[in-house]
């Protein structure tokens, strides 16, 4: 992705972010490093000792609203992949080769039964490679990592 | 554009101020997130965020300065999108069924009041702990060394429960399922199994307390299987079903996933993958540097205490050696007293650097049966990392 596209992506993403506003924030800024960083915090945080009083123990998981840069296969990615896992499952990985990403996307279809066609596998592979790929890196994955 | 550039842009447009009034947990860095993102989940302290849904959270290294890892900082790893977020203890039961004469439905109160309680200090470590250090890199949770923790687990031995259920003769395996659920019918439910002998060894336990407190929900409230000396994949969280089987257990998570090459230390070559694989099982021996931090300030003539932890699958740590010159020479570290055969054991070594410069610290542990750490290691899944760790520090 070129720097220009990235900046466009982020501007668009920002618009989404702003549009999703409502309650008080938990986005903090680490000024000491000059880096603003989104920190996920839970909206409800029961103390362990409250379990003794209440037989129903409930937590509220933090909700992360990720930003999806535009790219080939973005629609397929957003429709088929994010049903089961957040895009951090892609972005936490090293920048893998197209072949490694193809192996991972095929694993989602063949092993985990993602509802995608072979054509969509290729489109999604293009997308994850575009946002987190690099030629000639990584080794084909196995299961259960 | 890099992150900083983006954030400068954000600042310039005043959007940060807008973002600051948001209610949802937007990732400002979003898809460009760095691996050092921190996140705070319910009942947890701020932890290193690998993924948010399902959650995978890594323990920051400084917590390993304590013998017992606090519940609030203990690592988190789920497989399936549908993780439990609410449990009603009035209706929750763990069901014991299958090849038994007396099926049981036990509440947490039943476990606490009707069985002999037992406690054990034991390390729980993710199979993929330290995966990000394998070369070539492999897909999967990109953990550094913090997918591990040491805790005091209190609960009931599985043997006591199986005895009450009266296992029929011919039992082979016992499977363990939790409340987590797959997002699609095509995804295999996460169920793991142990042999009947292992399940009845008098050590495998159902824990209702972790460091004398109820478990955090994301660590498996209200009950978690404890399999001392074995990788975390067997420590089923939010345990709800125990099934005794008269035949070997078979499912995706055992037959295809969580397998290691059958050769020594689960190692294979990227160019020549092992044909025979077996289910991952006991921990190998390893040590982890806790101090100094990579960015700690060190000065010539100033004595510092190098510190770390070492553990194996229960034989016990016999020796830890430390090098401050990149492995050219080694000296024995002092071992803290053992606090349990399945606990990690702390080691310490004093070091007074004489000169300024870069130094490579290394530590290698050996256990009571002579198993030592690897010099090099690779497998396709990124499991069982136990290469001798190197920490580069600067003395100035």
pLDDT < 50 stretches of chain A: 1-51
Mean pLDDT of chain A: 71
The SS-based structural class of chain A is mainly alpha
Q: Kindly name the structural category of chain B.
A: mainly beta
Low-pLDDT segments, ≥5 res of chain B: 1-35
DSSP strand tally of chain B: 25
Question: Your description of this structure?
Answer:
The complex is a heterodimer of chains A (145) and B (396). Chain A is mainly alpha-helical and 145 residues long. In chain A, 39% of the residues lie in helices and 9% in strands. Chain A has helices at 3-19, 74-80, 88-91, 98-110, 118-132, and strands at 27-30, 35-38, 56-58, 64-65. In chain A, helix 4 (98-110) packs across helix 5 (118-132). By secondary structure, chain B is mainly β. Among the domains of chain B are: 94-257, Oxidoreductase, molybdopterin-binding domain (Sulfite Oxidase, Chain A, domain 2), CATH 3.90.420.10; 286-395, Immunoglobulin-like (Sandwich), CATH 2.60.40.650. Chain B has a 5-stranded mixed β-sheet. In chain B, strands 2-3-4-5 form a 4-stranded antiparallel β-sheet, with no helix packed on it. In chain B, strands 9-10-13-14 form a 4-stranded antiparallel β-sheet. In chain B, strand 3 and strand 4 (55-58) form a beta hairpin. The interface between A and B is large, with 80 and 87 residues.
């Amino acid at each position: 992705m070129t720097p220009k596209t990235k900046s466009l992506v982020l501007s668009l993403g920002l618009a989404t972010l702003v549009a999703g506003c409502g309650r008080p924030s938990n986005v903090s800024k680490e000024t000491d490093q000059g880096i603003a960083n989104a920190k996920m915090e839970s909206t409800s945080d029961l103390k362990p000792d409250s379990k003794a009083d209440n037989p129903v123990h409930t937590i509220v998981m933090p909700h992360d609203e990720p930003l999806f840069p535009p790219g080939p296969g973005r629609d397929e990615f957003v429709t088929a992949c994010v049903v089961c896992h957040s895009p951090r499952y892609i972005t936490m990985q090293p920048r893998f080769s197209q072949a490694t990403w193809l192996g991972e996307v095929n694993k989602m279809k063949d092993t985990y039964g993602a509802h995608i066609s072979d054509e969509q596998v290729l489109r999604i592979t293009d997308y994850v490679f575009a946002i987190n790929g690099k030629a000639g890196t990584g080794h084909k994955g196995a299961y259960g990592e | 554009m890099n992150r900083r550039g983006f954030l400068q842009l954000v600042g310039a447009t005043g959007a940060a101020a807008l973002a600051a009034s948001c209610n949802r947990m937007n990732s400002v860095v979003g898809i460009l997130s760095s691996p050092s993102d921190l996140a705070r989940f319910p009942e947890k302290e701020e932890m290193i965020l690998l993924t948010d849904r399902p959650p995978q959270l890594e323990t920051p290294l400084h917590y390993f300065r304590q013998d017992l890892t606090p519940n609030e900082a203990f690592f988190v790893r789920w497989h399936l999108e549908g993780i439990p977020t609410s449990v009603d203890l009035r209706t929750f039961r763990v069901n014991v069924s299958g090849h038994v004469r007396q099926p049981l439905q036990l509440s947490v109160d039943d476990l606490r009041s009707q069985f002999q309680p037992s406690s054990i200090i034991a390390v729980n470590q993710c199979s993929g702990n330290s995966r990000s250090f394998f070369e070539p890199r492999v897909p999967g949770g990109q953990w550094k060394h913090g997918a591990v923790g040491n805790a005091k687990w209190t609960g009931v031995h599985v043997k006591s429960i199986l005895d009450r259920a009266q296992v029929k003769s011919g039992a082979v395996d016992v499977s363990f399922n939790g409340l987590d659920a797959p997002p699609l019918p095509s995804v295999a439910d996460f169920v793991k199994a142990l042999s009947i002998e292992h399940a009845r060894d008098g050590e495998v336990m159902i824990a209702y307390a972790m460091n004398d407190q109820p478990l955090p929900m994301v660590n498996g409230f209200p009950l978690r299987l404890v399999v001392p000396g074995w990788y975390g994949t067997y420590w089923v969280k939010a345990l709800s079903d125990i099934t005794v089987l008269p035949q070997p257990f078979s499912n995706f998570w055992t037959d295809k996933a969580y397998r290691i090459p059958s050769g020594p230390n689960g190692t294979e070559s990227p160019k020549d993958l092992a044909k025979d694989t077996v289910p991952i099982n006991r921990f190998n021996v390893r040590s982890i540097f806790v101090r100094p931090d990579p960015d700690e300030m060190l000065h010539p003539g100033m004595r510092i205490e190098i510190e770390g932890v070492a553990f194996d699958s229960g034989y016990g740590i016999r020796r830890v050696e430390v090098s401050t010159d990149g492995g050219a020479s080694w000296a024995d570290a002092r071992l803290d007293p053992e606090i349990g055969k399945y606990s990690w054991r702390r080691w310490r070594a004093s070091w007074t650097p004489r000169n300024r410069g870069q130094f490579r610290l290394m530590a290698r542990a050996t256990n009571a049966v002579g198993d030592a750490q690897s010099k090099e290691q690779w497998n396709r899944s990124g499991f069982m990392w136990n290469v001798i760790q190197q920490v580069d520090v600067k003395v100035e």
